[in-house]
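Technical annex, item 7. During the second reporting period the consortium partners agreed on a shared format for inverse folding records so that results from different sites could be compared directly. Each record opens with the tokenized structure and is followed by the designed sequence. A conforming record, contributed by the partner at site C, is shown below for reference.
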């Protein structure tokens, strides 16, 4: 009688384990079928810079009439909305608010150039931004890539 009870308990434990294994297998299988989440840039953020996902709201039409660089020929400033902050470099003490609106300065204009795509209203991009030292000055775009 004692032997029969022991076998019955063991069978119940085994059947319980197989239910757990099936549940784990189903969760693993459904997770494998889902699309992977996009992975943010893996390289570190440079000191004094912030990496963020931005949506360009509008290109500011003003030209730099005082200088002789590319911003004299084409616009270099845009207004953008911060979608997500990906990371901060060392020395950045003021956080960038997600959802807020900021000014960006593109040193080589917003036009397409050698290895840089055109930036226009509605463009979504990930950019490394040099944090300005004073308020009211735009963030300088050090590098960027267009997101689709």
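Designed sequence (site C submission):
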């Amino acid at each position: 009688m004692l032997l029969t009870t022991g076998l019955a308990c063991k069978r119940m434990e085994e059947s319980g384990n197989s239910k757990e294994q099936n549940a784990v297998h189903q969760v693993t299988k459904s997770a494998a079928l889902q699309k992977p989440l996009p992975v943010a840039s893996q390289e570190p953020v440079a000191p004094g810079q912030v990496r963020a996902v931005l949506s360009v709201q509008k290109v500011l039409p003003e030209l730099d009439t005082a200088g002789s660089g590319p911003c004299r020929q084409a616009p270099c400033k845009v207004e953008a909305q911060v979608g997500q902050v990906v990371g901060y470099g060392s020395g950045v003490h003021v956080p960038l608010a997600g959802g807020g609106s900021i000014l960006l300065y593109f040193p080589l204009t917003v036009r397409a150039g050698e290895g840089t795509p055109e930036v226009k209203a509605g463009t979504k991009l990930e950019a490394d931004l040099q944090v300005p030292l004073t308020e009211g000055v735009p963030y300088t775009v050090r590098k960027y890539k267009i997101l689709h």
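The chain has one helix and five strands. The chain has two domains: 1-34, 49-146. All partners now use this format for quarterly exchanges.
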